[in-house]
Specification:
Strand content: 15-25%
Subcellular location: Cytoplasm
Number of strands: 32
Shape: globular
Active site: 274
Domain Phosphoenolpyruvate carboxykinase GTP-utilising N-terminal: 23-242
Organism: Rugosimonospora acidiphila
Structural class: alpha+beta
Bound molecules: guanosine-5'-triphosphate, sulfopyruvate, manganese (II) ion
Keywords: Cytoplasm, Decarboxylase, Gluconeogenesis, GTP-binding, Lyase, Manganese, Metal-binding, Nucleotide-binding
Largest sheet: 9 strands, mixed
């Protein structure tokens, strides 16, 4: 016996958008929440929601004199990362999802999930969050509306997206939007008390690329629940981008200025927890160079009328890996967080109401760990989860570039691909041309990290760092990249140049050969000098690597031997990669662009195979 029309909030919507109203009503009738709340994105709304979350124990307010308007939260220990096994691309034709995605027919998925959603918001508030990915001033703003039963999601979405009344107003009555449905999957019976972190053992993160819909169930963790991020801006947007001739990529965007004042824009794709946030906010160690941040995770790239490829960051906040972040490695992130207005998830809490995580210098004598237990430096478990995160407004980044709000974006000069590999991959390699660059991107290999549930440290292929985020057939995706190489109006000269980097190569003793972080500015300098045609390179079978004298290592405490080792191209190591690349390519069948097989053949010839 449902009486949907009496659900408070349902009939007082601050919009007359017919499709939106109909969808909200339909979801409310299915999920039977206590009330419906339309989110306006205002400061009072933030105060109210964070206040309620503090009362419920889900958030703990941090010491305002250390981290103003900031909060500490702990998830259920089972709900700490993206769940790739439970992520589905539900295209009508299975071939449009394969071979790297999980697939289920849309009708079947909707049948299954409709039963999960039935009554799933009982006893909870259903929030409606209108949002826009990218500037609201864009010619075609990219709208979404997320329905969720999690106030933590609402608060996080306010940090991560341009949301609320401003987005709803801009949508008017007829703007298209991506419908994003989320539930933690934890209805409350009358009188039942809530847990700190409601979630469900059954999880689905489902995408319907043809109808541009997202259905997420069972998880409150960022990548599974903040649906504007990976679900919309990568999986759904990549399918839109394929149709419309642009690129939606797992890339940071930075602005690099040389001592002479030359400005270059660089985008870089590294797999999850492989260094995008850190590179995007880098403080150069070489004199006279400056880096400014435009984005740390996602880039949408379209050709401009001048034939160059322009990148926009669709996000509004940073959802960054906490461990490893400190004043030495990423001072700009520390400055961003010091300004407050942040939500920390699964880090440790200090006794004076601040946050702490591994990599942040010496630990205090006592902490509350991410499980909520007492922790001391003698404890044998880390105090923070390896995928603990900070969620903070990008506007607080002290080195945010002015161009950040420009809906046109910035013209990209170089694209860096990278991964986390102990061996084989040199510090930096320049591709011979676009097609070779696409080959490098298509064969990125990286050790898995704690950003996704599953084993950590297993080397896997991760094309363009997009393996978990391509919303359609990965073979078609690689073909799309090859097609983009024709350039706008057939002018490939204006395309970015492609490089491949690896900050994570190790010596026989297991230590990192390259100091990384701010010192990566030396690699950026070499990249710019290659663009300018002023740096020497050695041509190797795998591409152009720096001549040992062309990489600026002045003032760096790095032995000749380590420098040689980090730049080395060991033909034997590379020959042993070939069977894995062959096996990887074979997965794609007919869908793999033939030119990528040609690239592999040419590499084999250069390595002296056959
Ligand atoms: P996602 O947000 O998951 O997409 O990750 P990301 O690519 O932005 O990775 P992030 O910059 O947060 O770095 C992940 C981890 O790698 C952190 O623990 C960093 O401290 C560490 N890291 C980043 N850059 C470097 C580097 O140059 N060298 C070394 N050794 N570690 C690094
Ligand atoms: C990633 O896993 O690549 C992230 C974090 O950037 S999440 O938003 O959870 O996807
Ligand atoms: Mn990411």
């Amino acid at each position: 016996m449902s009486a949907p029309t009496v659900t408070p909030g349902l009939d007082t919507a601050p919009t007359s958008h017919p499709r939106l109203l109909a969808w909200v009503r339909e979801v409310a009738e299915l999920t039977t929440p206590e009330r419906v709340v339309w989110c306006d994105g205002s400061a009072p709304e933030w105060e109210r929601l964070t206040g309620e979350l503090v009362d419920a124990g889900t958030l703990v307010r941090l010491n305002p004199s250390l981290k103003p308007n900031s909060f500490w939260s702990r998830t259920d220990p089972s709900d700490v990362a993206r769940v790739e096994e439970r992520t589905f691309i539900c295209s009508v034709d299975e071939a449009d999802a394969g071979p790297t995605n999980n697939w289920m027919a849309p009708a079947e998925m909707k049948r299954t999930m409709t039963e999960l959603y039935r009554g799933c918001m009982t006893g909870r508030t259903m929030y409606v969050i209108p949002f826009c990915m990218g500037p609201l001033t864009a010619e075609n703003p990219m709208f979404g509306v997320e329905i969720t039963d999690s106030a933590y999601v609402v608060a996080s979405m306010r940090v991560m997206t341009r949301m609320g009344q401003q987005a709803l107003d801009k949508m008017g009555d007829d703007a298209d939007f991506v419908a994003c449905l989320h539930s933690v999957g934890a209805p409350l019976a009358p009188g039942e008390s809530d847990v700190l972190w409601p979630c469900n053992d059954t999880k689905y993160i489902s995408h319907f690329p043809e109808t541009r819909e997202i259905w997420s169930y069972g998880s409150g963790y960022g990548g599974n629940s903040l649906l504007g991020k990976k679900c919309y801006s990568l999986r759904i947007a990549s399918a839109i981008a394929r149709d419309e001739g642009w690129l939606a990529e797992h890339m940071l965007i930075l602005k690099l200025t040389s001592p002479e004042g030359d400005v270059r824009y660089i985008a870089a794709a590294f797999p999850s927890a492989c260094g995008k946030t850190n590179l995007a906010m880098l403080e150069p160690t070489i004199p006279g160079w400056t880096v400014e941040t435009l984005g740390d995770d996602i880039a949408w790239m379209r050709f401009g009328s001048d034939g160059r490829l322009y990148a926009v960051n669709p996000e509004y906040g940073l959802f960054g890996v906490a461990p490893g972040t400190d004043w030495k490695t990423n001072p700009n992130a520390m400055r961003t967080l010091a300004r407050g207005n942040s939500i920390f998830t699964n880090v440790a809490l200090t006794d004076d109401g601040d946050v702490w995580w591994e990599g942040m210098g010496e630990p205090p004598a006592h902490l509350t760990d991410w499980h909520g237990n007492d922790w001391t430096p003698t404890s044998d478990r880390p105090a923070s989860h390896p995928n603990s995160r900070f969620c903070t407004p990008i506007s607080q980044c002290p080195i945010l570039a002015n161009e950040y709000e420009d809906p046109k974006g910035v013209p990209i000069d170089a694209i860096l691909f990278g991964g986390r590999r102990k061996t084989t991959i040199p510090l930096v390699t320049q591709a011979r041309d676009w097609t070779h660059g696409v080959y490098l991107g298509a064969t990125i290999s990286s050790e898995t990290t704690a950003a996704a549930a599953g084993k950590v440290g297993v080397v896997r292929r991760d094309p363009m760092a997009m393996l978990p985020f391509i919303g359609y057939n990965a073979g078609d995706y690689l073909r799309h990249w090859i097609e983009m190489g024709k350039g706008a109006e057939g002018d490939p000269d204006k395309l970015p140049k492609i490089f491949y980097v690896n900050w994570f190569r190790r010596g026989d003793d297991g230590r990192f050969l390259w100091p990384g972080f701010g010192e990566n500015s030396r690699v950026l300098k070499w990249v710019v000098e290659r663009l300018n045609g002023t740096a020497d390179a050695v041509e190797t079978p795998v591409g152009f690597v720096p001549a040992s004298s062309s990489l600026d290592v002045s003032g760096l405490d790095l032995s000749e031997a380590d420098l040689a080792a980090v730049l080395a191209v060991d033909a034997e190591e590379w020959r042993s990669e070939i069977p894995q690349v062959t096996e990887w390519f074979e997965k794609f069948g007919d869908k793999l662009p033939g030119v990528l097989w040609s690239e592999l053949d040419a590499l084999k010839a250069r390595l002296g195979i056959e």
